[in-house]
Amino acid sequence: MTTQQFLVSSWSWDGAAVVFSALAMLAYVWRFGVNGRMWYLLAAVGAFLLSRISPLNTLAAGYLFSAHMLEHILLLLIVPALALMSLPRQVSLPWGRSLPAHSLMAWLAGVSAMWLWHARPLCNAAVSSRVVSALQIGSLLVLGAIFWRPILAPRETERMSPPGAVFYLFSACVACSVLGILITFSPVKVCPIYLQPPNDNRAVLELIQVGWGITPEKDQQIGGLLMWVPMCLVYLSAIVAQLARWFAQPLAGPQPAERGSS
Fold first, then answer.
1. pTM of the model
2. For residues 135 and 113, is the Cβ–Cβ distance under 8 A?
3. Could you tell me if residue 237 is inside a domain?
4. What pLDDT score does 26 carry?
5. Is residue 81, in this structure, part of any structural domain at all?
6. Domain extent for 154
7. How far, in Å, CA of 107 to CA of 102, rounded?
8. Which of 57, 64, 86, 114 could form an SS bridge with 40, CB 3.0 to 4.6 Å?
9. Is position 257 within any domain?
C-alpha cells in the first residue's frame, strides 16, 4: 500500500459523528439563521469530521499515538474555539457576572482534560473501548468550550480583559508544554496499547513501519512534539489576537475642562 492509496481508501463511516454534525448545523440555522459567522461553524464541523471519519481516525484507532494526539488537539482546541466564534455578537453566555472565579475553573477544565486523558489507563481505554472513546470525545468538546469561553465569548463584556487573557493563555501553553516535554522524552510508553497495533490490516501497519519509518518510540516522540509545539502555537496565536485587541482599545485620558462662557 502506498501513502496515496491509504489516504484514498482509509475513510471510515461514523454515523453518530455525521448525525451530530448535521444536528449542530440545523440547530444553528434554526436559532440564528444564515449569517456571516456561520462559516466558523462550518469550519468547526469540518475539523470535527476530520477527526472522526478521515484517515487520521484510522491511524488513531490503535496504530499511531501521534494521530491520537492530533485528534485531541482538534477536539479540545480547534473545534470548540471555532464553534464559539460562530455565535452572533448579541448572544450572552453564562458566567458573565462572576467571570474571575469561573475563569479559574475554565482554565483547570481545559488543562486537566489533556493531562487526564493521557494517563495510561484512560488512554488505553479510550482506544480499546467504544464507550470510553465516546466519553472522551464528548468531554474534550465540552471542556474545550468551557476553556475558550472566557476568551471567545460573543459579547466583549463577558470576556476576560486582554492582560488577563494573555496570562490565561500563556499559562495554559506552559502547562501543556510540560506534558509534551514529558511525553517526548519519557522512556516509558504513555499509551502501551499502541505497542500492539491491530493485525486486521497488515498493509497499513507495513506502510507505517516500513514506508514511513515510524517506530513506537518515534511515534511517542512525535506525539509529544505535537503537544509541545503546534498546540502551543494555537495558544500563541490567541495571545497575539488578545494583544491586538488590547492595543486597539482607546486610551483613557483626562477629559478637557469645559470653558465657561464669558
1. 0.88
2. no
3. yes
4. 96
5. yes
6. 3-90+98-246
7. 9
8. 86
9. no
